Amino acid sequence: MSKKRKVDSPPSAPVAPETARRLSDQLLLASFMALAFLLGVTQIADTDIWWHLRTGELILERGEIPQTDWFTYTNPDSPWIDLHWGFQLMLTLVWRAGGAAAVILATATCGAATFALLIGIRRPQWSVPISVACLIPSLLLYAGRYHPRPEMLTQLLLVVVLGILFRARSQPRIVWLLPLVQLLWVNVHSLFILGWMAWGAFLVDALARRWGPGFLRSKDETPDTLNDAKRWGLISGLMLAANLMNPYGVTGLTFPLVVFTRISSERDFYVQHAGEFQSMGEFLSMYGKGALFTSLSPLMLVVISAAALVSFGLLASKRRLPLDRLLLFAAFGYLAWQANRNAALFALVGGWAVRLNLGEWSDLRPAVAPTAAPTAAPSAASTWGRNAVMVGLSLMLLAMPLEIFSMLRPIAYPLRIRMLALDEVPDWHAHDASRFLAREGMPQRVYAMHLGQAAVYLFHNGPQRKVFADPRLEVNTRETLQRSLDVMRELVQHDPKAEADLRIGIPPDASGEQELPALLMDRSTVASILQQLWSNPRWRLVYSDPSSLVFLSNQQADKLGLRQLSLSEAVNSAAD
Question: The pTM is what?
Answer without folding.
Answer: 0.89
